[in-house]
């Protein structure tokens, strides 16, 4: 539950206003499915003792639809050819009201819930006796478990201009709902719309941000209203005005979407959805708080400053961060121990506590990985392809950062260091959201790292998301966040994929297999199997299923493997054949990530059956074969469709640091962009640089395309501004020879000019 909405759990009487855009579809017809779902939600609230009062719009829209249809049926072709006069709202309201209420009555009846209709006008509320009787009637209905359904009686309203006429006590159904919430002493008012809440601008604009808690002093000048509702009278402007009036009088208000499943339930559960209006909002809303978009934009700006630094300067940042980690090891361990203690008291699983704990030597290991990253070849701006498009027109394909990456991870605070270091090396901005169980560890690590960043880059390069409620906002920012990398449970990854349009890179499970072939060296196999399972059982690259060739049943090999695992403290669960042969407890599923000292064991016919099993039950993460038969090994490595496939090596080698990547931001089991352990290269993309000297297309007249590949060399001189590289020079410097493509131009024609490095020049006039 969002702490700022904890008060909702005590709400016993709720007024729910249903907007016209919720009641009707885009074509003006009734949204039957949406209304049916809404009625079901009302009943569920009633079942837990919450009194619900409905205020509904839509009568005018329903009546207009009916009258248009009737006019069409009663018109001749001559009548239809004439300009059609828009129908007046009052007869539309009179016709539509009965149909709308009949629908509510029918839907509630299907749920064994009684409903009642109450039509009111603003003039009614001028009479004190009416207000007293209204309250008594509603209280009686609620005691009888009847849902009161209110609507303004537009057919006989005396207001000259609805919404704009300030002489009335209320001016539309939003303000009526606010008035009723006050009169009937409701604990909460919910205004349902066709958008998720109040945005800083029109919701259709990408830069508009959802405001979760409205603070008049902060948001009044920030909000820009777009067009009013497509079918209602006032749109969001009316809702905000009504919500502010109600909140100021002490009735909390939530504006949220009535088009999403379980919207009412989520509001009543205190979920961080919609926009909250509350008289005490100033006590918990920071006037200077950074929104999700601001955080992402700041990370992008900082990444551009980082990219503008020299390679040596970026290298020095990593070395400085490494020194800072070592210097602050005691502080880091203190905060981590506090997290571990809190996790143990809360009963978190041992596997998660294992991931949470920063073990002795881990900080030194992390610092060393940063030093390794610093010494790696410069990843930004590397030329992977150079082509002569036409004479004097050179095209280069170069590497560049993705931009801003959002990484959501669980438990492991050391992941924060790895991800941040990769962001620095690759020139990306990064937003990090760790698990709540590692809050203190993540906070101190983030502070140590960002304090070590130079002022020219700034701490915004690495943003730390501290609230789970911020994640939905971040996942909507597909215009400023370029990639999401979730590291955690299958549910976490699946939920994120379903909630965003931003590309997602990661894996949902780490169900890794080791297959011991009949031609395996059993001594070697035991070492590999035990290490794959026990070196770090909670890791995603730990073995979860052991497959054994059936030939080893009769040779004692199977029993030897079982004994080795059980001696190491591993609990075994069996597939059908293993249960029969070894009397093991039956595995609940072959697709289980134990993340503990446990694994599944099954006996298979041969390498083909092992491959089929892996494809059917695996997660395409890391799989291994142990065999001395080269042909069988080659078949396994060729046919197993996983991100990493090993021969005679522990699955625990599937790791960015062990692969020599310096660190990893995660392991991808997808097939797009990056696969396996993702290091610096996985956080890069490419762009094209074209070097010319005034060429134009002009319908391709006079252009002779050559499309010739030009040689690459890590020490080539960059083409001079205003010219084009078109000559290849061999430069000798002691034992070092460098090929340089250098541009010159003479009298409008390209010519060769020598360049000197330490006084030694060799120049050729051959075209590159």
Automatic annotation (TrEMBL):
EC numbers: 2.7.2.11, 1.2.1.41
Aldehyde dehydrogenase domain segment(s): 291-553
KW Repeat (keyword) present: no
Pathway: Amino-acid biosynthesis; L-proline biosynthesis; L-glutamate 5-semialdehyde from L-glutamate: step 1/2; Amino-acid biosynthesis; L-proline biosynthesis; L-glutamate 5-semialdehyde from L-glutamate: step 2/2
Keywords associated with the record: Amino-acid biosynthesis, ATP-binding, Kinase, Multifunctional enzyme, NADP, Nucleotide-binding, Oxidoreductase, Proline biosynthesis, Transferase
InterPro entries on file: AceGlu_kinase-like_sf, Ald_DH/histidinol_DH, Ald_DH_C, Ald_DH_N, Aldehyde_DH_dom, Asp/Glu/Uridylate_kinase, G-glutamylP_reductase_CS, Glu/AcGlu_kinase
Coiled-coil intervals, chain numbering: none
ATP-binding is among the record's keywords: yes
Reaction(s) catalysed by this chain's protein: L-glutamate + ATP = L-glutamyl 5-phosphate + ADP; L-glutamate 5-semialdehyde + phosphate + NADP(+) = L-glutamyl 5-phosphate + NADPH + H(+)
Domain of life: Eukaryota
Start and end residues of each Aspartate/glutamate/uridylate kinase domain: 12-257
Function noted in UniProt: P5CS plays a key role in proline biosynthesis, leading to osmoregulation in plants.
Family: In the C-terminal section; belongs to the gamma-glutamyl phosphate reductase family. In the N-terminal section; belongs to the glutamate 5-kinase family.
NCBIfam families for this protein: P5CS, PRK00197.1, proA, proB
UniProt protein name: Delta-1-pyrroline-5-carboxylate synthase
Organism listed in the record: Sphagnum jensenii
Record lineage: Eukaryota, Viridiplantae, Streptophyta, Embryophyta, Bryophyta
């Amino acid at each position: 539950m969002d702490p700022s909405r904890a008060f909702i759990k005590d709400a016993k009487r709720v007024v729910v206003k249903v907007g016209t855009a919720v009641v009707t579809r885009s074509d003006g017809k009734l949204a039957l499915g949406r209304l049916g779902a809404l009625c079901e939600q009302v009943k569920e609230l009633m079942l837990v003792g919450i009194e619900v009062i409905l205020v509904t719009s839509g009568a005018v829209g329903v009546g207009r639809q009916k009258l248009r249809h009737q006019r069409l049926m009663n018109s001749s072709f001559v009548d239809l050819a004439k300009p059609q006069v828009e129908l007046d709202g009052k007869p539309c309201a009179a016709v539509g009201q009965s149909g709308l209420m009949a629908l509510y009555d029918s839907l509630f009846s299907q749920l064994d819930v009684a409903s009642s209709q109450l039509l009111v006008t603003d003039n009614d509320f001028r009479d004190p006796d009416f207000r007293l009787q209204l309250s008594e009637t509603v209280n009686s209905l609620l005691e009888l478990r009847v849902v009161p359904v209110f609507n303004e009686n537009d057919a006989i309203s005396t207001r000259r201009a609805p919404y704009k006429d300030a002489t009335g006590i209320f001016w539309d159904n939003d303000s009526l709902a606010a008035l009723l919430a006050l009169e009937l002493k409701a604990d909460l008012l919910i205004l349902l719309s066709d958008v998720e809440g109040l945005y800083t601008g029109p919701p259709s604009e990408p830069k508009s941000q959802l405001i979760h808690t409205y603070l008049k002093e902060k948001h009044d000048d920030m909000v820009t209203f777009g067009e009013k509702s497509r079918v209602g009278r006032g749109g969001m402007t009316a809702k905000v005005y009504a919500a502010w009036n109600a909140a100021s009088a002490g009735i909390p208000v939530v504006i949220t979407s009535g088009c999403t499943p379980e919207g009412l339930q989520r509001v009543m559960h205190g979920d961080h959805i919609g926009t909250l209006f509350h008289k005490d909002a100033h006590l918990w809303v920071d006037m200077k708080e950074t929104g999700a978009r601001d955080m992402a934009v700041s990370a992008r700006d900082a990444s551009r400053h980082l990219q503008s630094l020299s390679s040596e300067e970026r290298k020095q940042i990593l070395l400085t961060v490494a020194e800072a980690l070592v210097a602050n090891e005691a502080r880091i361990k203190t905060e981590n121990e506090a997290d571990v203690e809190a996790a143990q008291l809360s009963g978190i699983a041992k596997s998660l506590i294992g991931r949470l704990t920063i073990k002795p030597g881990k900080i030194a290991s992390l610092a060393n990985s940063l030093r390794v990253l610093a010494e790696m070849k410069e990843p930004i701006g590397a030329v992977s392809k150079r082509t002569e498009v036409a004479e004097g027109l050179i095209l280069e394909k170069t590497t560049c950062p993705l931009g801003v990456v959002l990484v959501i991870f669980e438990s492991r605070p050391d992941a924060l260091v790895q991800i941040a270091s990769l962001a620095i090396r690759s020139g990306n901005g990064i937003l990090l959201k760790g698990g709540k169980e590692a809050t203190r560890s993540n906070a101190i690590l983030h502070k140590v790292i960002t304090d070590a960043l130079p002022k020219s880059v700034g701490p915004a390069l690495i943003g730390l998301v501290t609230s789970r409620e911020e994640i939905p906002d971040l996942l909507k920012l597909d215009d400023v966040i370029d990639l999401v990398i979730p590291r955690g449970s299958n549910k976490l990854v699946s939920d994120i994929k379903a909630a965003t349009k931003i590309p997602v890179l990661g894996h949902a499970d780490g169900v890794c297999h080791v297959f011991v072939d009949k031609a395996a060296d059993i001594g070697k196999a035991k070492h590999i199997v035990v290490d794959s399972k026990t070196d770090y059982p909670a890791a995603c690259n730990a073995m979860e299923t052991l497959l054994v060739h059936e030939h080893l049943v009769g040779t004692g090999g199977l029993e030897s493997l079982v004994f080795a695992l059980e001696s190491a403290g591993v609990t075994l669960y069996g597939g059908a054949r293993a249960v029969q042969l070894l009397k093991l407890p039956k595995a609940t599923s072959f697709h289980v990530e134990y993340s503990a000292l446990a694994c599944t064991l099954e006996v298979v016919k041969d390498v083909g059956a092992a491959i089929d099993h892996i494809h059917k039950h695996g997660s395409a993460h890391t799989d291994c074969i142990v065999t001395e038969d080269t042909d069988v090994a080659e078949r396994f490595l060729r046919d197993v469709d996983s991100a990493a496939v090993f021969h005679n090596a522990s699955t625990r080698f599937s790791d960015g640091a062990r692969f020599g990547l310096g660190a990893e931001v995660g392991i991808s089991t997808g097939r797009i962009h990056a696969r396996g352990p993702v290091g610096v290269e996985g956080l890069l993309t490419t762009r094209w640089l074209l070097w010319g000297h005034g060429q134009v297309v002009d319908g391709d007249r006079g252009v002779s395309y050559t499309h010739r590949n030009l040689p690459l060399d890590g020490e080539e001189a960059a083409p001079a501004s205003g010219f084009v590289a078109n000559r290849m020079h061999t430069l000798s410097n002691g034992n070092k020879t460098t090929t340089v493509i250098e541009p010159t131009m003479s009298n409008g024609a390209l010519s060769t000019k020598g360049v000197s490095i330490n006084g030694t020049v060799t120049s050729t006039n051959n075209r590159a």
